[in-house]
Each structure stands twice: as structure tokens, then as C-alpha cells.
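Figure caption, in words: inputs first, then the predicted bound structure.
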Amino acid sequence: MGRNYKIGIIKGDGIGPEIIDEAIKVLDALSPTMGFNLEYEEMLMGGAAIDETGVPLPAETIQGVKTCDAVLFGAIGGPKWDNLERHLRPESGLLNLRKEMGTFANLRPAIVYDELVNASTLKPEVVRGVDIMVVRELTGGIYFGQPRELLKDRAYNTMVYTREEVVRIAKVAFEIAMKRGKRICSVDKANVLEVSQFWRETVVEVSKDYPEVELTHMYVDNAAMQLIRNPKQFDVILTGNIFGDILSDAASMLSGSIGLLPSASTGAGVGLYEPIHGSAPDIAGQGIANPLATISSASMMLRYALGEDKAADKIDKAIRKSLAQGYRTGDLGAYDAKEICSCSEIGDIIAKYVSK
Ligand code: NAD
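Bound structure (nicotinamide-adenine-dinucleotide present):
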């Protein structure tokens, strides 16, 4: 008997269903060659859930995800639901789902594929070979700290981190670094903020359990500059919630295309794997969306949730091969395309490569 895994599927809105279908196509072509079996359970969230049940995150979805080994998610949102009250909008479904799943770590790779160096707004020699993993703390820091208040003449938020919060995110980063280049740059503002000084001291403590990993520290303002000046110096970037929010968006743009990059939100339990882009209502239903970010997210799911590293490597290699062969969706059409493909044609090509 092979290994069996249960995967929660949340297709969502806009291009969500199209891109998820291609990821499933690839997983189904791959799994028989690797000796494992995937069982899918589809669940509702976002606009699709509002239309069907009246709420963006139905109770069945909250229960359902907890029975899975991992959840693969497309994207949610669209103009149809934009005028609803904030707590009834699709986005609140996603925020609440992350909270329910206790996903405190957000992993955002920034990879520049050789074949697409010209897609970046930076010079090819600066971005060629970039392969960074940003590990962002997701459930603490200034976005959640108390007290917080908006008054008439002033407003304030609180940036707070506990030892437990810093230790658990640092451990995630060190474990990932062990699987990669064994280098971590922890980003903070320890020259100004006590909470950053505490972050730095705690990360140093955790590093003692990982003597093989080289740990450096950088102030966030310098890190923003270095990401643009010389991004190749980074392997894993470990940082808090607000700094990670900003740096991971900057890092993702090194690759030049939003349709390529995956992400993972993980924690103590089940992880959520999703492309970084949204539901792209402007191109939904046309069959032209780029499914590579979602297929890459499926690869991250295999690696980080299921420990199926070889299967993940196979997907990553197939993506590189499809790009090397010049197959591109329209969003990448300007960059050395030999053939402009539809969303499902790209899925077919990757599925064919991984099935061998
Ligand atoms: P978006 O990422 O959906 O789209 C931005 C631009 O990138 C659009 O021109 C779109 O066509 C293009 N694009 C995005 N993904 C693409 C892909 N795979 N292939 C080709 N082109 C792609 O961002 P937006 O337009 O600001 O937001 C649209 C909706 O998505 C909103 O309702 C927003 O709230 C929601 N959203 C959802 C998530 C999520 O589900 N995680 C994230 C961001 C935005």
C-alpha cells in the first residue's frame, strides 16, 4: 500500500477554479509515479461560499480543513461582493480561515527563473539565480498587538512579541534553511525598537540548536535596500509580521510576474498552500490565467506538508522545463515565448512532464 493523503481543495472565485483544476491535473499525473495516493475534499470559502451559504467561511469548511493533511487554495474575491460589510466579504473568510487553522508562519519564495530574467524590472545580472525564501511571522506583532485605538486627535498600535511566538517562527525558518542553503538573515529594527532587540536575542538563542546554519542580522531599512541592490546575497529571510508583509511583496517582484509565485501558511496543524496573486476577475473565465503559481503551491504542499520532497522536485523541474521550452501564458508572452498557451495547455504540458 502506498502513502495516502487527504487534500482539502478550496477553489474560490474568479480564476481560482481554473488554476486549481490545473494543479489537480498535475498532482494526479504525478502521484502514481511516486507511490502515493491523494484524496480530495472540496470546500467553500469566499464569494462562492457567500452565494451558496450566505457567509464567507461556512462552519463545514472550518471543520473540514482540520481533517485534511493540507489545503490547496486558489483565490477569492471580486467586484460582485465588494459592497458587502467588511465582516461579510470574501477576504474576511480567508483571514478567519488562517486564524482558525493557527497558521503563524507565512513562507514566500522569490525565485527568478533563468528563462524569465528579462521579465524583471531589475537588470538581468542582478536577478539571475535569485532564490530567496521569506519566512514571515503571521499572527503576532503590530497587526494584532493590544492596546490599539483610533481616537480623534491621535491613534496607536502596539508591537509586541512573546518568547513563544519568536521561538516557533525561528524554528520554522531554521528547519527550512537546513533544507536549503543553510543561511538565515533575521531582519529587525533592533537599533530603535525594544521588541526587535528581544526578537534578535531570541533568534540567537534558537540558533544554538542549529550550529550548521549561518545566522546574520540586518535592519529592515537596509534589508529593503539590499533586496533591490543585491538580492542574491539572501537564502532565508526571517522576519516579523509588518516587516515581512512589506519585504515579501518587494521580494516577489524580483521575478517580475505575479502569476508565478506560490506561498504557504503553516503552523502547528494543517497548512494552507496558495498562489500569491488574487482572483484576477479581469481575466476570469477566459482560460488565459497562468496556473504556474498554483502548481508551484502544490509543489510546496508536497514538500512542506507531506514530506514528499522528490515529488516536489519533479514539479519544480517540470515548471523550469516548460519555461525553457518557451511555453508561456499571455502574461509572460513578451518574454522569449515560443508558444502562447492557455491555462489548461500549460497544465497539460506540466502533467505530461511529471508523469514520466
Ligand atoms: P490580482 O492579483 O487578482 O490581479 C492583479 C493583476 O494581475 C490583474 O491584472 C490580473 O489579471 C493579473 N493576474 C493575477 N493573477 C494572474 C495569473 N495567475 N495569471 C495571469 N494574470 C494574473 O489582484 P487585484 O486585481 O488587486 O484583486 C482582485 C481580487 O482578488 C480582489 O477581490 C482582491 O480582494 C482579491 N485578492 C485575493 C487574494 C487571495 O485570495 N489570496 C489576494 C489578493 C487579492
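Residues 115 and 149 are 48 Å apart (CA to CA).
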